[in-house]
Amino acid sequence: MIKDIMNSNETVLLNDKQMEALKKNFPACFKVDGSFDIERFKDYISDKLTLSNERHEIKFCGPNYARLLASVDTTTVIVPDEEHNNKPENKDSQNIYISGDNLDGLKQILKSYAGKIKCIYIDPPYNTGSDGFVYNDKFNFTSEDLAIKLSIDEEKAARIIDLTKRGSASHSAWLMFMYPRLLLARDLLTDDGVIFISIDDNEQSNLKLICDDIFGPQNFISCLSVENNPKGRRNSNFISTSSEYCLIYARSKEKAYFIENVPKSASDMTLDENGNYVHNSGKRVLVGENEFNNLVTNINSEKNYVVYYNKSKNEILTKKEDIDSIDLKLISKGFVRYASIREGKMIENTYTAEKLLSLHKNGALEFSSEKIYEKNYADTIRMKSQLVNRKYEAIISGKKREYSMELTTTGAGTYLKDLLKTDEPVFSAPKNIGFLKLLLTLIDDDEFYVVDFFSGSASTADAIINLNNEKNKKIHYIAIQLPEDLDYKYSNANAESKKSIKKSIEFLDRQKRPHLLNYIGIERIIASANTIKSSSKHSNMDLGFKHYVLKEAAVSTLDKLEKFIPEEKGMFIKNDILSDFGIQTVLTTWLIRDGYGFNADIKAINFEGYTGYYVDKHLYLIEPNISKASIAEIIYKYEVDGDFNPENVVLFGYSFLWTMTEELKINLARLKDTEKNLRINFDVRY
Prior knowledge:
The protein has 23 helices and 29 strands.
C-alpha cells in the first residue's frame, strides 16, 4: 500500500507517463538501445498533422517540477468517517466530501474517476497578496534527486527547492501550485467535459497561458467577465474594478456542447393564437424566398414541393408543381399558394413535406402573404461572455416570471449568513450560487458528476443541491477541501483577518465542530439539505454525502513499514500496523485504487471464521489470523460457486505469515487446472 507507493515514487521520472504512451502506441519508433526515432515518428503522423516548430509558452521557475509533482503518487490513505457515512441520509449517497490536500485528493480520485467527470468548477486562491496564499506543497526531494529526475543542474534544483520551502507567494509559486492540480484535473474530464475556473486580474493572464499549455489553446471556450461587485472596489486610483473572470476550457471542444440557458425577456415574446409564447423576431423561413436553401437539382427531392393553405379552415396541402403551375381549383376554394423561388428558379424548402405537415399539426407555423415561417418557441438564449446583475420579467417554462441574474459576492455572503443563521460572515467572499447554477445549466444532462477541489465554503455543493431541487436533476458532487487549522491561521493573521476568522471559530464552537475550515463547508451542506428537505417535492433527492479524510501515515507507522520483513514468522508487528490504519481505511483506499469508486457493492464473506471482502473482480484479504481451514474454504468456493470468480486476490501483507501467504498462493495457482480454468492474479500489498 504505502510502502509499495514510496518505493515506486523513488524511481518516477518527469515524463514516465508520456513515454509509456509512446511505447504503447508507437513501439516501432524505439530503437534497440531504447532511443526514440523522431524521424520515423514524423513519418507515422505527417499525413494527419501539419508539423510546426513554432510555439508560445509560459516560463516560470519550476514548470517541470510541477509536472513531476503530478506524476508522483500520493502516500495518503482514505479514512472513512464511519459514524457520518452510516447515517440513513448518507449511507447510499453519491455525493462525496473529502477533507485533505487537493493534490492528494485529485491523485486518489483519478484512480476511480479518470474520464468520468463531466464538469469541474474551482475557485482557487487569487494570489492578491492579501488572500493568504503561500506555496506549501511538501515533498522531500534533495537537490541531487531533483536534478536527476528533471535533468537539470543541482544549482537550479536547489533554487526550486528553496522556493517550495520558504512559503513564497510569487507568480512562479502560484503557477507551480496550480499547474500539477490542473494537469490532474484534465484527466478527470470526460471527452465532452468542461472546466470552469474563477480568477481575477492578478493571475488571469498567467492562468490562461498554463491552461493553454495543459488543455490546448484549441480547447479554450471563453473568458467570462462576471460582475461580482457592481459598486466597484474603492481601493483604486484609476479604475474601480467591478468584475472578475471565469475561464472555460473543454477536454475536447469538438465534443463539448453548451445549451442556451438564459431566459428570454417577456418583452421579446408574444402570445400566439394557441396561447404559447413566440419570439418576436428570428423566425426561420421554411417556404418562400430565402438566401440559404439550395436550388432544386432533383425534381424528386423530398424538399421540392409547393404549399396550399386555407386560413379560414386552417387546412394545408403539399404538391409537386413546376414553377409556373398553379392549382386554380384550390385557389378558387380560398387556398393561397406558397412556393420557394429565388431569381426565377425553384429552390428547396427548409424541411421535407412530412415535417412541415407535422409542424402545422402542432401549431408551429406562421403564415405571411408570401412566406411560411417556423415559430420560435425557444424561451432561452445563449449566455453572453459578459455577465451582469439584472432583474427582468422573463418567459420561463411558458409563463411570465421574475428572473434574477444574481452574481454578487455581497449577495452570496448574505445568503450564507441566512442559511447558517449567523449575524456575521463566517467565510470570506463565497461564490454566489446563482452564478454557479448558471454555469451548471449550460450542460445538457440531468445526471453527471461535478468536482470542486477548492471547495471552500461548499458553494458548489450548495448550488447543486438547489439546482437538483429546482430542476429535478441528479447532479452529484465530489468536493475536496484542505482542513486548514483556523486557530493557527488566527494567530498569524492581521487585525482585519482576525475578525473574520474569529467568527468562523465561534460558529464552529456552536456546532461543536473542530476549528478546521472544512467543517464550515460540511455544516453548510447539511444546512442546505435541511432547508430543501423541509420544502422539497422530490422525496427521492440525494441530500446526503459521504465524508472521507486523507491522512498521511504517522512517522511511527512509517518506521514500522520500513523495518517490516515479510519472511518474519512473528505477528506482533503485522497486527500493530493494521491497527494503525484500520480495516475500513485499507479497504476504502484499495477500492479507490482499483477503480471501484466510493459506492462499491462490497460483500463481506465468512471463510470459516475469516472475513474476506468481495467486489466484482477483487477479493480483499486484510484481517490477520487466517487459518488453513479458511484458505481451504476460499479455494472450495472458487470451485463450486459459479457466482464467485474474483480475478484478483489482494492481501494486506502485514497481516499474513509468510507460510500462509505461500499456501494461499500455491492453492490459487492450482485453480488453472480445474474446470473453471481460472488464472488468479495474486497481489500482496505493503
